[in-house]
Design goal:
Largest sheet: 4 strands, parallel
Order of helices and strands: EEEHEHHHEEEEHEHEEEHHEHHHHHHEE
Helix content: 40-55%
Strand content: 15-25%
Distance between the termini: 43 Å
Structural class: alpha/beta
Number of strands: 15
Length: 464
């Protein structure tokens, strides 16, 4: 398997640190709001990579953190007049709702910053003892000039680095590039006791500590969006390697941006979409398929029209699934012919093509194309050959490959519940004489192959 390593700027053969085991850390959300479509991309991509590793037999220890101590959380708590902990706990639960709907598996551990304060303090103390950190007025900063390899991930050196928007000039710092490890408490902010007084951690130290605690000094893969390369991941390397003297991560993987209607997504442009917003119009499995339809290192454009295309593609996959399940249940028993046995063997070429795509730097776009080719081949062949054993073999392979991408995982019961919920929503719209919404829901159901029937017992539905 080859992965593009941001650290070396090239595709490399993936060799785990320990045979059969992979230690993976992916930066999670700062929990002060619903996460947006840009956040969803790394969550889906690295969930898919994890699924593939498990599919080919690896044990994966997958850590994704929650940043529940942060300026944005504090600001939100002040605006709403509730404790910061209440804000973060609320949005952790909301994260899981959206992540579940996107088909994202739970991490092995989802650590929180607030639960790792002693370990954070301990690492800062080690950095201070090594001369890599210094305290000024209760604030502790990292001395970037003392870490000789600073800039090796972003391929920039300290002299060339521009003091951009995220690097504030501060008279306390010895060097403008020095960054905060510990922040002195301000009035009304949550704080913890430390050797430097009451305060809270800086952003970057949190991930270094949680990765070390749950995965050890050196990990196989660290993932995240490319916006985190600098300064966040660069600073993680400086902290972790400064503290342990060992390489932090062997492979660094970063996904590219999602643009909205060919413009970079930003709040200032008003083109900022949360996954929760999108879920009001589209099943989030559609969003997952949309994300997987492009190579993770390519920028991708997001629009309602493209989501509709993904919705149609997902419906084709569910139709194939439903058709095969129907054939399995309703085909009369008959012996499998030698020709059919050979055809099942030929189907394995799709499995190999799928694996080749995934092992070429997680090429989910090509892997999806293989699944659609498999559907075409299966539909063509099963029109004339219908022994139960043949249908079951084709169905098994189809579902096997789809599950690696986290698709088609919903049970019939889940689908039925969603349809019932839409019908109830339509009934409420009709009561409120909101005919436009009622018609829209009816059309949405029809597109999914659902027709409604008026009966003496009320509205019933059936698939066509």
């Amino acid at each position: 398997m080859k992965l593009f390593n941001t650290l070396t700027k090239k595709k490399e053969e993936f060799i785990p640190l320990m045979p059969g085991k992979i230690k993976m850390y992916v930066c999670g959300p700062t929990v002060y709001n619903y996460f947006h479509i840009g956040n969803a991309r790394p969550f889906v991509i690295f969930d898919t990579l994890r699924r593939y590793f498990e599919y080919i037999g690896y044990e994966v220890i997958y850590i994704q953190n929650f940043t529940d101590v942060d300026d944005k959380i504090i600001k939100k708590s002040q605006e709403e007049g509730i404790p910061a902990k209440e804000v973060s706990e609320k949005y952790i639960q909301e994260y899981f709702k959206d992540a579940d709907a996107l088909g994202i598996k739970r991490a092995t551990v989802h650590p929180k910053v607030s639960e790792n304060i002693p370990e954070i303090i301990h690492m800062i103390e080690i950095l201070e003892q090594k001369g890599l950190a210094y305290c000024v007025n209760g604030n502790v900063y990292y001395r970037v000039t003392k870490f000789k390899e600073y800039g090796k991930l972003s391929k920039q050196n300290i002299q060339d680095l521009d003091m951009g928007a995220r690097i504030k000039v501060n008279d306390e710092k010895e060097h403008p590039m020095d960054f905060a490890l510990w922040k002195k408490q301000k009035p009304g902010e949550p704080a913890w006791n430390s050797p430097w007084g009451l305060g809270r951690p800086g952003w970057h130290i949190e991930c270094s500590v949680m990765a070390k605690k749950y995965l050890g000094d050196t990990i196989d893969i660290h993932g995240g969006g490319m916006d985190l390369i600098f300064p966040h991941h660069e600073n993680e390397i400086a902290q972790s390697e400064g503290a342990t003297g060992k390489p932090f991560a062997k492979y660094w993987l970063h996904n590219s941006y999602i643009n909205i209607n060919n413009q970079k997504m930003s709040k200032s442009l008003g083109n900022f979409f949360t996954v929760r917003d999108i879920s009001q119009q589209f099943d989030l499995e559609v969003v997952r398929l949309f994300i997987l339809s492009a190579h993770y290192r390519n920028p991708v454009n997001f629009s309602k029209e493209l989501l509709k295309q993904s919705q149609g593609a997902l419906e084709r996959l569910y139709n194939a699934k439903n058709n095969m399940e129907y054939l399995v249940k309703n085909t009369t028993s008959q012996d499998q012919t030698q020709e059919e046995i050979k055809w099942i063997e030929v189907l394995q070429k799709y499995k190999e093509k799928f694996k080749n795509a995934m092992e070429d730097d997680i090429n989910t776009a090509d892997a999806l194309a293989v699944i659609f080719d498999l559907v075409k081949e299966t539909n063509r062949y099963l029109d004339n050959h219908k022994s139960p054993a043949t249908i079951k073999a084709a169905y098994k392979l189809f579902m096997e490959l789809s599950s690696v991408l986290g698709l088609l995982q919903k049970t019939e019961g889940q689908l039925d519940a969603e349809i019932e919920a839409l019908i109830q929503k339509r009934q409420q719209a009709r009561k409120e004489k909101n005919w436009a919404l009622a018609d829209k829901i009816r059309d949405q159901l029809r597109e999914q192959g659902i027709v409604l029937e008026d009966t003496p017992e009320g509205i019933k539905w059936k698939r066509i």
